[in-house]
């Protein structure tokens, strides 16, 4: 039995650490003694459980932090999604493309950066694929 083959039924919510551990124990108890789970597969599954637990703790911490940070954090999180992307920007001379390489605060306002240029997010007209 491979953990990836297991499907939980009757639960619409996320799988808990407790459920994952119970699945691992069940797998060990019901494995074929002639073909036991390899130690590599076992430790891989264990590391996945630990990763899920770490991500859950991080999510819980973020949920408590975000309301305290307010709209500034929301703006920064939104703008950081543009980093590494090519955007379409409206300028007095027409539309141009720019590859965003960062986000910074300029005079209390968040700006995207593309090389030496600061870009007002209100001037973004689209994002190009790729």
- Treating each run of at least 4 consecutive H or I residues as one helix, how many helices? 3
Q: How many separate domains?
A: 2
- Mean pLDDT comes to 81
**Mind telling me the C-alpha Rg?**
23 Å
Side by side, the strands of the main sheet go 2-1-6
Order of helices and strands: HHHEEEEEE
Q: Low-confidence parts lasting 5 or more residues at pLDDT below 50? A: 1-6
Query: Sheet with the most strands?
Result: 3 strands, antiparallel
Estimate percent helicity: 40-55%
Task: Give me the secondary-structure category.
Answer: alpha+beta
Write down how many β-strands occur, each being a DSSP E stretch of 2 or more residues: 6
Descriptive account of the structure:
The chain has 130 residues and is an alpha+beta fold. It folds into two domains: 3-69; 71-128, SH3 type barrels. Helix content is 42%, strand content 24%. The protein contains three helices and six strands. The protein has helices at 17-30, 39-69, 71-80, and strands at residues 86-91, 94-99, 102-106, 109-114, 117-119, 124-128. The strands form two sheets. A three-stranded antiparallel beta sheet has the order 2-1-6, with no helix packed on it. α1 packs antiparallel against α2. The longest helix is centred in the middle third of the chain and has 31 residues, at 39-69. The model is unreliable at 1-6 (pLDDT under 50).
Sum up the structure in keywords.
130 residues; alpha+beta; SH3 type barrels; 2 domains; 3-stranded antiparallel sheet; 3 helices; 6 strands; elongated; disordered N terminus
